[in-house]
Design a protein that fits this description.
heterodimer; A: mainly beta; six-stranded mixed sheet; B: mainly beta; seven-stranded mixed sheet; about 0% helix; about 55% strand
Chain lengths: ~110, ~120
């Protein structure tokens, strides 16, 4: 499978909202409701922020929300904070019990 | 709260076998609702799901097509852990390897600390 497509970088000021896109195909993102999003700070393991397109694990602030339309999934962070600066990765079930990740988007908080 | 503790060598010679182990606490490798994955990350390949093992009245494994001919993931019920073996490694297999719990319905929710494995002579 090919990796999901994510923009290389996104930036925003504190308090603003930012949205990350994740584009796949009908074989992955468009074909199921198992898209997840991960936040990764430098030198740390990724952290699950959203699963099943729009569900938040316990402890993840409700500033983080997910959605999907067709072959594109989105992660939105509202009320941007300095500690949100990190890399963000999307992941989708790709059929046949396999998963595919996106290349990641670097978020800069200005 | 699930915790995953990885162990294994950080340097492997080309053509040899990469072996890592992941010890589980807070859950059971034999859980009928869990799944135990290996995911790696490198600058060139990004995050890449490699495979998983899980128990649903019997043991199952699934592997990524890219490594299917070289990979083995095994559970060890006596030690509540699971392992990764990747054969015939090349420098392209140099990456940080993570053991991760997670299922289709809940995402990859708990991650090990990561092990940087360098393939070099």
């Amino acid at each position: 499978q090919s990796a999901l497509t994510q923009p290389r970088s996104v930036s925003g000021s504190p308090g603003q909202s930012v949205t990350f896109s994740c584009t796949g195909t009908s074989s992955d993102v468009g074909g199921n409701n198992y898209v997840s999003w991960y936040q990764q700070h430098p030198g740390k393991a990724p952290k699950l922020m959203i699963y099943a397109v729009s569900k938040r694990p316990s402890g993840v602030p409700d500033r983080f929300s997910g959605s999907k339309s067709g072959n594109t999934a989105s992660l939105t962070i509202s009320g941007l904070q300095a500690e949100d600066e990190a890399d963000y990765y999307c992941c989708s079930y790709a059929g046949s019990n396999t998963w595919v990740f996106g290349g990641g988007t670097k978020l800069t908080v200005l | 709260q699930v915790q995953l503790q990885q162990s294994g060598p950080g340097l492997v010679k080309p053509s040899q076998t990469l072996s890592l182990t992941c010890a589980i606490s807070g859950d059971s490798v034999s859980s009928n609702s869990g799944a135990w994955n290996w995911i790696r990350q490198s600058p060139s390949r990004g995050l890449e799901w490699l495979g998983r093992t899980y128990y649903r009245s019997q043991w199952y494994t699934d592997y990524a097509v890219s490594v299917k001919s070289r990979i083995t993931i095994n559970p060890d019920t006596s030690k509540n852990q699971f392992s990764l073996q990747l054969n015939s490694v090349t420098p392209e297999d140099t990456a940080v390897y993570y053991c991760v719990s997670g299922t289709l319905g809940r995402g990859f929710d708990y991650w090990g600390q990561g092990t940087l494995v360098t393939v070099s002579s």
